[in-house]
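**User:**
Everyone, produce one record:

**Assistant:**
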Amino acid sequence: MKSLLTVILLMGLSACSTAKVRILPGETSNKVVSTDFESDDAEEAAIEKANEYCQKYNKRAVFLNSDNKSKYTGKMDEGTRNTVRKASHAAMVLGGPIGAGTRSGAAGGLLGSAGFIGHAMTNDRDYRAEWNFKCVK
């Protein structure tokens, strides 16, 4: 039961925003740069931060790029990274956290350990959203 609560806590923490976001003000336009573990999260954080920036001036953000998509910047092939990331999450849930006593014995501990290693291999902010925007009324 204790290991189940630990896994639920870890999953809940991973649902929080982990993006690193910067706003670079400019004379004619601004730039938002966001990096995160997942593509959608990097994009959402960039949009949110640009809107927050413009709201300070009672304006809204209008993005100038026509293809506002984040880019993968990781060292590992993107498809391999995503497969390892998904499998490691499943292994950690099924095997339990490292060091936790499990009813399934050594197999559960090995599975959890493999999941932890896979998670560590893919735990970089590999997605980058870098977009220009203006604040307009």
In short: Strands lie at 20-24, 30-36, 60-63, 71-72, 127-136.
